[in-house]
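=== Structure Prediction Worksheet ===
Name of assembly: unnamed complex
Input type: mixed (protein and possibly other molecules)
Chain count: two
Listed entries:
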Amino acid sequence: MSSEDCKPVTLSQTQLLAILDPDPGRAEARYVELHQKLVRYFEWNRAAEPEDMAQEALMRGFARLQEGQKITTDDAAGYFVGIARNLVREGWIARKDESLGDQQPLAAQPLFRNLNPSEQVVFLRQCLRDLPENDFEMLMAYVEGNGEAWGRKVGLEPGTLRLRIHRLRKRLENMARTKVGTWVTKKSEIDAAFRS
Amino acid sequence: MPIETDEQILRYLLDEMNEEERSTLDEQLSREPFFFEVISAAEDDMIMKYVCGDLDRRLLTRFTEIYLNSPSKRVRVEEARIWQQAVHETARSREATASSRLRHPKKWKRRISLFSAAAVLIMLAVVLSLWKNHPSLQQVALQNTAPLRFSLTSGLVRGSTGVEITLPPGTRRVQFELTLSESVHSDNNRIVLKTIERSEVWTGSAVRSGPIVIVIIPANVLEAGDYTLELHAQDTSIGNEEGSAVYYFRVMK
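=== Predicted Assembly ===
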C-alpha cells in the first residue's frame, strides 16, 4: 500500500502541489508531467476519455490527501498510478459535473496540443534551433528511421537510445509549451490593449 | 515476474496481453517510476517507426487497429509527424546557414576571428577524413532520402482512375502535394486515405503551404491499387468543417 490514513486536514492548492515538489515552480511542472503520465496510462488501457480520467485520478488523489491520507512511496506518481489502476478496474466513466470546488487541482490541459500542426512545428523549430549538433544528429536519425543505425555507430543500446530520445523530446516539448504559454499571455495582453 | 523485454512491452501497448500479464505490468508501473519512462519511450519509438514506414508488417496491422481507431492515440501519431516535419525543416535551415557561410566568406570573416576560422577548418578536415574511413556514416546519410513527391488535383476525369504513381522498391515515404480549391482557407487540414472500396487505410494531418497542402504518407501502407485521399479542412474558429475535396490516384508496383 502506498499511503496511510490520518486525521483530516485542510490543505491549500499550493500545499497540495508541494507534495510533488517543495519548490512551487517545479511542483507545477511535476503536476503537468504527472497529468501527462496518467493520460498515457489511460490510453494504454484503452480508456475512451483519457484526459477526463487523468483529471479524475488527480482529483481523487488530492481529495484523499485532504482527508489526511499520506503518500508513503518515494515518488508520488506511483500513488496516483495506483488510483488510476483502480479507476480502470472500476470501469469508471467520465462524469463532467463533479468537481472539488475551490480545491480543484490545476487544469493541466496542455496549451501546446491546442495549436494547429503548423503552429506546433513553428514552436518546435524555435526550440530545435539551438540544440547541440550531436543531439540534433540523433533526432535527425530518429525521424528518418535510422535511429538504430545511429545508435550502433555511437555505441548505444536500442533501449538506451529510445530513452535518450524520449527525454530529449520531453525536454523540448516542455520548452515549446513554455514558449506557447508566453505567446498566449502576450497575445491576450495585446488583445486586451486593443479592446480598451 | 517483472516485465522486461521489448516484445512484452509491445504486446502491452498493442493490447495483446492477457489479464494476468497486464495486471503484473500495471503493478510494476505503480512501483517503479522508471518503468513508466521505458514504456513511454518504447511507445514513442513504435509510433515514429510507423510514421517513417518502418514498422514491422506483423505489428502494422495491429498498430493500425489500435492506434488509428483511438482519437487520443491518433494525436500521438500526429505529434510524431509534427516532430518529423520540425526536425526536417530545422535541418534544411541549418544547411542553408552553413552554405551561406561558405558562399559569403568575407562577410563571415568579419564575424569570426582568424583563430576560430582555423579551428573550424581543422574540424572539417577531421570530419572529412572520418567520413572517408567510415562507410557506415555514408550509409546513414544515403538512407536520409527525401520522400517521393507527387502533385494531385481534386476530382476525377471521366474514364480515368486518377494519377498513376510508381513506388520503387525501398521507398519509405510519399509526399503528396494537394492543390486547394479556392473555398478552402484553413490551416487545419485532416487527410483520410481510403482504398477504392472505402476502407480507411491511414489518417493524418496536412500542412498548408500557400495554394497547396502537403501530406507525407508512409509507403508501406500503399499496396498496388486505387486510392482516394480525402481532405477535410476545419474552420478552427467555429470547429466546423470548412470544406472537403477528394483526390484520386493509383499505385503501381
